[in-house]
Write a structure and sequence with these properties.
Layout lengths: L17 H9 L4 E2 H8 L3 H14 L2 E4 L2 E4 L1
Antiparallel strand pairs: 1-3, 2-3
C-alpha cells in the first residue's frame, strides 16, 4: 500500500541527531559493534544507546554481529 520504499530513493535522516548521523556515516559498510564504538569516539553507553535508537527507527539492523544500513 505504498509503504515500501522505492529502490534508488535516498533515505533522509531529518529526524536524526548529529550523533546518530555520525553512526550512520560509519555504516557505509557493515561494522561490528566494537568497531563502531572505537570509530565513533563516544562512550560505550552512548554508542550502544544510539545503535538501539537507530535500530528502532528502522535505519539499521544487526545481522550476524554486524550492523548495516537498511
Amino acid at each position: 500500500f505504498g509503504m515500501a520504499e522505492k529502490e534508488g530513493v535516498e533515505k533522509t535522516y531529518a529526524d536524526c541527531s548529529d550523533a546518530e548521523i555520525k553512526i550512520l556515516t560509519l555504516l557505509k559498510s557493515p561494522c561490528s559493534r566494537d568497531t563502531i564504538i572505537e570509530a565513533a569516539g563516544m562512550s560505550i553507553q552512548e554508542t550502544n544507546s544510539l545503535l538501539t535508537i537507530l535500530e528502532l527507527k528502522g535505519y539499521i539492523k544487526e545481522v550476524y554481529g554486524e550492523f548495516l544500513l537498511t
